[in-house]
Amino acid sequence: MSSEQIFIDALEYEHRIRDMYFEAVDKVDDQRGKDLFKALGEDEQSHVDFLEYSLASLKSGDTIDLNRLQSTIPAKDRIASHVSSMTDRIPEQMLGNIKRLLNSALSIEVETSDFYREAAAQTSGDIQAVFKKFLEIEERHVEAVQIELDYATKSGFWFNFMEVDLED
Q: What residue numbers bound the domain in which 84 lies?
């Protein structure tokens, strides 16, 4: 598969997840959920913009500036450092369709991460560096959505680790 085709396929993934996040903003009742989906949607839009720029650069023979690919979603360790302040702001009762939307988002984010993992394996050099950075960013999205889903569903997991009840 050509580099151009991989970028075109990546655009399809990014459009799909971006649209899901922006639609979710209107479907949830909880302001915190709206803010989360809006931030994720805006981050995905920045990916669409970067992929369009990259595709144009490839077609014209220009170099892709990897520094233009950024994310506003923090890494898991940074999120973890703010757990106590986050838990104070998470409502006890998640309203609307947030759990269903988080499940859908998680599924799409995992699928998108898998695509970038495969794209990185199929490419080399600067193109591979682009897809490795996308993979890193998408894995942050998976973590952020998983954290929210774990709390919303009260699954007994927090940051993918089973919470232990020390009182038993």
A: 3-162
